[in-house]
Amino acid sequence: MHEYVALGILVFIAASLLFGAIAIVGVPYKIAVDRNHPHQDAIRFAGWVSLFTLHAIWPLLYAWSAAYRESAVSKIAPRFAEINNEDTAINDKAEYTGPKLAQLDEDITDSVTLLGHRYEALGDRIERIEKAIMAATEAA
């Protein structure tokens, strides 16, 4: 009688471990679905592969699915689409001489002028530092 009880406990423990391992396989996939990950199918397939590799790659799957945030991507994607639309609109026209080009030219000119002034200021500072170093070495 004790043998049957022991066998039942052993079968219960083995079944629990098997179903627990299968349940763990689905965790990265559920995270990917919740976050609307673009690679959901790949994560699901890799989860089943990890079952046969004794969950050796499971931590990587978890990190892969948890690292994706749709909110960050959704903020950037419309801007990329807008830039692409602007580029195609500009490329479609033979010559573009609108106000944006004039404003861009003014901005570039202002930036170059500002950089020139900063370069001169840095040159003056470097000269003063060199003089101070020379004076300190001569005094020593």
Number of helices: 6
Secondary-structure element pattern, one letter each: HHHHHH
Integer-rounded radius of gyration = 33 Å
How large a portion of the residues is in β-strands, by DSSP E? under 5%
Mean pLDDT: 83
Poorly predicted parts: none
Give a quick account of the main beta sheet: strands, pairing sense, barrel closure.
none
Q: What's the helical proportion of residues?
A: over 70%
Tell me what the structure shows.
By secondary structure, the protein is mainly α. Helix content is 84%, strand content 0%. It has six helices and no strands. Helix 2 (27-34) packs antiparallel against helix 3 (40-52) and helix 2 packs parallel to helix 4 (58-66). The N and C termini lie far apart (99 Å).
Overview in brief:
This protein has 140 residues and is mostly helical. Helices cover 84% and strands 0% of the residues.
Summary keywords:
140 residues, mainly alpha, 2 domains
